[in-house]
Amino acid sequence: MHRKPIVEGLSYAHGKVELVKQIEGCFIHKEGPGDLPVAHQRGTVHAAILPHGPYSHSGPCAAWVFKELAESEPPACYLILSVAHREQSTCTTDANFLTPLGVVENDDALRGLLISLGIPKNADAHNKEHAIEVQLPFLQYLFKNPVQQRFVPLLIGNDDPQRIASLIRQAIERYGKQVCILVSTDFTHYGNRYHYTPFIYNIRDELYKMDARAINYICSQDTEGFLKFCEETKSTICGKQAIVVLMEYFELVQQPFKYELLKYYTSADITGGYERGTIGYASLVVR
Question: What are the distances in angstroms from CA 207 to CA 44, 61, 91, 216, 263?
Fold first, then answer.
């Protein structure tokens, strides 16, 4: 079963040739890492947080993470956690995902372990969600071997983050191979269009400060502080539940991991016009 793309021509370019051109443009963009990845495999990236906006806006930010992935030791599978924009419960799907670059294989073994531990399947929820789909063409561009593209999609709903993190930890332990967890999330959504205007002056500076606070809690591995920040600010970080799951996961693993911020900017830095509404984009890796 193949899940067909729903944001081809919207979030990213239509067709293989134009999509490859767009992806390469993200790497060399002034807000991107500046050059294409060179596969010399140094170190391990255990997890990453990256945006899922249109490539024209957030693609250069996401490219920072994908460059790190391309230049690190490849995992056996990517577990991609995403905000469930339309679904209240955490769920996976057994579908392979189709993009203009071909089919990305859903890893049977890891997905099966998650399901056996209590994660339900909901193909309809995944068919309507774009935040995982937009990450896959980058993986396909980086890794030509389909085995190196294998992933498991997991929408994170309003479930107990500690419980979901525990299930993920158990599944990965039983899987017995290296898994890289990717959290697909944008940061603060500001403006009337998002019904969120906690400040009206010095918008760019205030937005940068707000997202910097959130990122600092993440990099400090302060889950309680991050949750308190989200509650106090009524945060519009769309994937905050998925971020908390990731943070809880690393608390359970109890090994020395380090978060590193690679890039931050906002959509208005690309388009101009903060007053019309803007979204914060951040790329972080966990080593």
Answer: 32, 17, 32, 14, 15
Give the DSSP H or E segment for 126.
helix 123-127
Is residue 142 included in any domain, yes or no?
A: yes
Q: What are phi and psi of 147, to 5 degrees?
A: -65, -35
d(CA 250, CA 240): 16
Q: What is the pTM assigned to this prediction?
A: 0.96
Domain count, the chain: 1
Domain for residue 47, yes or no? yes
* d(C-alpha 185, C-alpha 132), whole Å: 10
Q: Which amino acid is at 142?
A: L
> Residue 119 sits in which domain range?
2-31+41-286
3-state secondary structure of 60: helix
228 found inside a domain: yes
Q: What is the pLDDT of residues 109-157, one digit of tens each?
A: 999 999 999 999 999 999 999 999 999 999 999 999 999 999 999 999 9
pLDDT tens, position by position, 176-223? 999 999 999 999 999 999 999 999 999 999 999 999 999 999 999 999
- Is residue 140 in some structural domain? yes
CATH classification at residue 271: 3.40.830.10
